[in-house]
Amino acid sequence: MSNPKELRYSKEHEWLSAAADGVSTVGITEHAANALGDVVFVQLPEVGDTVTAGESCGELESTKSVSELYAPVTGEVVEANQDVVDDPSLVNSAPFEGGWLFKVRVEAEQDGLMSADEYTAFSGS
What we know:
9 strands
């Protein structure tokens, strides 16, 4: 598996795109999607919600377990991916493309976000 070089990664296995006009996209990594198994339900923060770096902001439910979704940054949610809510399997099939979770107007970043190489070493993937 390959972690895109242009993204940054959290120890909770979320990825974060570079901010475009102050807005970054958040998703979970392929490593996390594989560990979860088949995702069957996604609960995302709503547009207008404020998320806080390092804190839970949603859930991913799979056939194996329920996992918390953690915000890698602090900011206001400006878009939630309704496609993933309607078809949670996108998280498994395209975690870095159509399986993104939400977009956030970044106010502050979490300490310790990793580069792709650092995340690969951290996760073993």
